[in-house]
Predict the structure.
Amino acid sequence: MATTLKDIARETGVHVATVSRALNGIYGVDQDTRKKIVAVASRLNYRPNRMAKALATGKSHTLGLVVSDIRNPFLTELVRGAEDAAYAAGYHVLLCNSDLDPAKQIQYAHSLLEKRVQGVLMHSVAALSEKQLQELASYGVPIVLLCRPPSALAFSGVSVDNFQGGMLVGNYLIRLGHRVIAHLTGPRHHGNLTERANGFMKAVEANPEVTPIIVHGRHNYQGGYEMTKKLLAQHQNVTAVCAANDATAFGVIRAVFEAGLSIPEDISLIGFDNVELASIVRPPLTTVDQPKYDMGQAAVEILLRLAAHPDNRLPEHRLFGLRLVERQSCRPLKILTSSIINKKSATKFRQPPGVQ
Amino acid sequence: MATTLKDIARETGVHVATVSRALNGIYGVDQDTRKKIVAVASRLNYRPNRMAKALATGKSHTLGLVVSDIRNPFLTELVRGAEDAAYAAGYHVLLCNSDLDPAKQIQYAHSLLEKRVQGVLMHSVAALSEKQLQELASYGVPIVLLCRPPSALAFSGVSVDNFQGGMLVGNYLIRLGHRVIAHLTGPRHHGNLTERANGFMKAVEANPEVTPIIVHGRHNYQGGYEMTKKLLAQHQNVTAVCAANDATAFGVIRAVFEAGLSIPEDISLIGFDNVELASIVRPPLTTVDQPKYDMGQAAVEILLRLAAHPDNRLPEHRLFGLRLVERQSCRPLKILTSSIINKKSATKFRQPPGVQ
DNA sequence: CTGAAAGCGCTAACAG
DNA sequence: CTGTTAGCGCTTTCAG
């Protein structure tokens, strides 16, 4: 069907090896024969069969990428960064959505290995056991973990310091004067989110005058909405809430709004991730920026370096910095000691316990 | 490195062909030898080399998918639908981001063909010439076009009727009583968006009392913002705007807000696409739903059917229905004839020309 | 039921 | 500079 080296060889009257050399621009082919070969190749619309090439060379020029769900804007951005880096290096990426299902994750990983990808990027691997990961690694194909803390497992990876991120958020809110702060987090043992919660608590503990309220729930829009409903019903005195991530924060916005309150007038809100939407929503969301795109890119860079040196496979972990991006969902809280509170804000704004 | 059929054959004392048969569950292998082979295979952690298999069988079990930018939420959803359908059928998908660059698009398509994908899904092919598409098609690999109208080109595809969608929007707004309606669209010859604009105009023309205002610009958040700034400055009397898509509508929201007006009180707004965000933004956006996920899924189904029948390659086009989803960004306009206008709305709401 | 052999399309020494 | 040969790992007749 498709034209092959052999076709060109026959047509040109030379051996396929020569055609191969000519087309691959290897030094050592007569200019005239090369010209002729190239001409025939283009006339016949020759397209090299990369699978055959890959089989022969052992290089598929393909990477695997498994994420839980590409529709998560955080992951979308990460994937784009990865794809761009791969493309720039002449690689393609096979995209897999695991839906956080460990079995599906493993299955995908195996399929990828069978397709002889030269490396695989994995996100949301928290649910995999160390044994499972080791098994995958045992095939000799480099694996880079996305958004997992640097571990003793000796896997390469890219991540941010979530603990520090949590502290960042906590301190920010405290510095603004908030004293009753709710933190909406995920399920009880979600690695990254728990780290954020811990960081937050660390900040709080350094300031005995602040009261933290930790709420567990689903860390998404719906979950944020539900957690906030509950929160608002039980704690009239919160003046600030920080959410596990932006998606959760969006749910908070809705719930706060439905409760007849305003952000940031009554409740200061801060998210985490800085997805695109954070700047579009109203009020524009103050949040912590994770360099998603760069992380995807870096992960591929590490992967390719690892793939290029089957010897010297020293794992590498890149830790990215976090940055608070202030928008309009937080406001400084006037404290008792700050003498003057004008009428308007006194009635319109929620005040910390004791103020009213 | 990796264990191969040959390894298993040696270990088991049979020929590789037998091993192949045994492992592929082909009828005609002694139960005992099969058992032994399977045992050895699993002991050696055998993973078939799919590339070799693909080379031998001519089936790569891989599909190509080129979109402009996965970060476009519309496309994200589409991609997810496609990936799910592919996975369900035992296929993988290679994801490519072309950034709407025709050269990059063609280049990606060629790379995919060289990797012997069994089919390719392409979005945003408007910029490609018929000749270019034909060239790609000439390789005999089925191609399904995403979001292009059924054409004479005899390509398979999935799409919606954008013209009808435009009418749907126009009629809805007219029925609500709006008389000066702006339509924010894209560049002058953007196929789909132009169709929507045409459909909108069709609706308007059937109602002589309605004044349409067409604004061209970039069909994204920023563009929507800019177009609206201009619109509001030049036309004090608009009471409704429909945007080319949701992203544009989000820009409208911001601009309207900054102008000190409210949605839907002063301006009724309607989008197109129904991306997830549409229900999250405030006010929740009334829009036209495109079944993105289903379209991605359907496209893969068509592709696989085409791939399965190299003979009988009758192109198939699936046209999906559009559905108006009413949320809270539009309000009915009180007309002169509707006798009573209470004080509050008279001062607070914008009224059509002549009312104030 | 199983072995032998050829082949998928390309690369990579190794000779000439 | 170019042809020969072997081989990547698996499938698939064709014999036996």
